[in-house]
Amino acid sequence: MKSVETKPGTNGIQAMKKQRMPMESDGSQVVGSVLARLAAIRPSLGPTAQRIADFISEHAESVVHMSVTEVADRAQASEGSVVGLCQQVGATGFQNLKISLAQDLVQPIQFIHEDLQPSDKVPVVVEKIFHSGIQAIKDTLSVLDPAAMTQAVRLLKQAKRIEVYGIGSAAPIAEDAHYRMLRIGLDCKVVVDSHVQAISASLVDSTVATITVSHSGSTQETVLATRLAKEAGAKTICITNYGKSPIQAFADVVLHTMARETQFRTEAMTSRIAQLAIVDALITCLALADYDDAVATIQHTFDVLSAKRY
C-alpha cells in the first residue's frame, strides 16, 4: 500500500464564507471537491460511468482543457454519458465541472488513500489519521446542502417527537444525537436494536420525525426502519454518505457526509467524524431556532448534571 497524492477539494470554510460555493459568471454554482465526489459515487456507477470517472480523475489537469467530445472519445463513451456523470456530482454540465475541477487543482490538498503501512511509526500513524479526519470534515462541508439542513431543522421543530435510528458503528452517533437533543429540551428517543427499531418505526405517525444514521445507506435494518417510518407517516431524515444508496428512497431529507474508506480506516472511523459534525451543526441550528427555551433548558440540565461532579 502506498500513499497517494490527489488534489480534491477547495477550502470548505472559505467557501462557506462566500455563501458556501463561488459562482460562475452565468450565476451557476461551482461544485466543491469534484474528485472527492467522483471517488465517493464510483462504486455505484455502471461500467461506462466508471470509465468516465476514472478518466477524469486520472487526467484531471488535461480534462480542464478538453471538450466534452474529447473526453467521451478517450473514455469510450457518449457525450450524453459524460454530461450525465457531471450532473451526478452536482455540476450543471461539463463546462461547470471543468471550472470546478480547475479549482480543485489550484488548491491541491494531500489526501491519504491506502496510506497506512506496517512499517509506519506511531507519530506517522497519528498524523495520517488526523489528516484523514480533517479531510473528511472538509469534504463533508463541500457536499452538505444548506437547504437540506434548513429543511431538516424545520421538520424537527414541527415534530412532537423525534426518533433516532442507528446500527453498528452508527449507533454511538445516534445515541449522541439523542443526548444532545435531550439537552435542548426536545422529546426524543434513540433505538439501536434492530427488532425494536422495526417495531418503533411501524408505530409512528405524522407527528413524529425520524433521523437515521447510516454511512452506507444500505444496511438492511436501518433501511427497513426508515421505510416503515415513512410508510407510517413520519417525516424522515437520513445522515448518509454521498452517492446513491437504497435508504434515500425513503428519506424526506438527506444530509450527506463525505468520508472515504480504506483497508485500515473503515466506515467506523472517518465516517463518524463527519456524522458528528453534521449532528453538531443540526443541534446548534435547532437551539438557535428556539434560542430562549434552548438556553434555559441547557442551563437547567447543566445544573442537574453538576450534582454529579466533584
Task: Give a description of the structure.
- The protein is α/β, with parallel strands linked by helices.
- Helices cover 53% and strands 9% of the residues.
- The chain has two domains: 12-143, Arc Repressor Mutant, subunit A (Orthogonal Bundle); 146-306, Rossmann fold (3-Layer(aba) Sandwich), CATH 3.40.50.
- It has a five-stranded parallel beta sheet, sandwiched between helices.
- Strand 3 (208-213), helix 12 and strand 4 form a beta-alpha-beta unit.
Average pLDDT over all residues = 83
Spans of at least 5 consecutive residues whose pLDDT stays below 50 are 1-28, 109-114
The H/E string reads HHHHHHHHHEHEHEHEEHH
| Main sheet summary | 5 strands, parallel
CATH topology label of the largest domain: Rossmann fold
Features:
alpha/beta, 310 residues, single chain, disordered N terminus, Arc Repressor Mutant, subunit A, five-stranded parallel beta sheet, 2 domains, 14 helices, Rossmann fold
Concise structural overview:
This protein has 310 residues and is α/β, with parallel strands linked by helices.
Describe the secondary structure blueprint for this structure.
Elements: H1 12-17, H2 34-41, H3 47-58, H4 60-63, H5 68-74, H6 79-88, H7 94-106, H8 122-143, H9 146-158, E1 161-166, H10 171-183, E2 188-191, H11 194-202, E3 208-213, H12 220-231, E4 235-241, E5 253-257, H13 270-289, H14 291-306
Parallel strand pairs: 1-2, 1-3, 3-4, 4-5
Helix pairs in contact: 5-6, 8-13, 9-13, 10-13, 11-12, 13-14
